[in-house]
From TrEMBL:
Main localization category: membrane
Known role: C-type cytochrome. Part of the cbb3-type cytochrome c oxidase complex. FixP subunit is required for transferring electrons from donor cytochrome c via its heme groups to FixO subunit. From there, electrons are shuttled to the catalytic binuclear center of FixN subunit where oxygen reduction takes place. The complex also functions as a proton pump.
Listed SUPFAM superfamilies: Cytochrome c
Species this protein is from: Rhodoplanes tepidamans
Localization, UniProt: Cell inner membrane
Name of the protein this chain belongs to: Cbb3-type cytochrome c oxidase subunit
Amino acid sequence: MAKNEIDAVTGTATTGHEWDGIKELNTPLPRWWLWTFYACCIWAALYMVAYPAWPLVSSYTSGLLGYSSRANVAADMAALQALRGEKAALLAKADLADIEKDQALLAFARAQGRAAFGDNCAPCHGSGATGSKGYPNLNDDDWLWGGTLDALHQTIQYGIRSGNAQARENQMPAFGKDGTLKKDEIVQVANYVLSLSGQPTRQGVDLAAGKQLFADNCAVCHGEDAKGNQELGAPNLTDRIWLYGGDEASLVETITNSRGGVMPAWADRLDPVTIKALAVYVHTLGGGR
């Protein structure tokens, strides 16, 4: 078959290729598409020369224009530090207790703390710091480790179970998983804890037995009155504020398998002034003591 054979139906020349009686038409790509493709290839080549593009052993090609997004961020941060200037220096030198006494310094610390909170803390605690299941509400007056300025500052600095040598550390036993309590005993304790905050309990559960089990196993941390111990990070069980849920099923799960939330040590990521501003901001949300 000749390559220049003209297809009778379409009037287009064929390429000479034929499969099972089906002939391939010689239909070239549109010129506009080809020129666009060539232009994109040229643009890509010029881009790789002008901007950072190729990885090297320990770095990358910097490009003829010397552009670097990392350098831009560093320049923006330097400009921000210069803008904060004198106020930032005063905040760095001021004692935590004195910041809230100076209205101008307090306003500056809150503004910086709010921005840092949105960037670093809001993903867990929420943009309004109201928390969610497993993440404390920072607007109320219920604190595991204390709500004073110093306590907040330490918690933010070193975190909770973060691996930092100065982190807040505690560990609630997994009473069911470890075999310390049986399933029916866990149900009794859970219902006794529900009764402490005036919540309804399961009918037929022996609350007196639950009270005794609580005294034998839980009071050492939560206290005989179950109002908690901030030195140990043990929560108050007499209010209706629950970190992981206050229904029977949630309490049974907590008693059985324990809980162990982790908060990062921000001293490893943020500068001391920003941490100080964060402590002030959280303290002034309404729940700080």
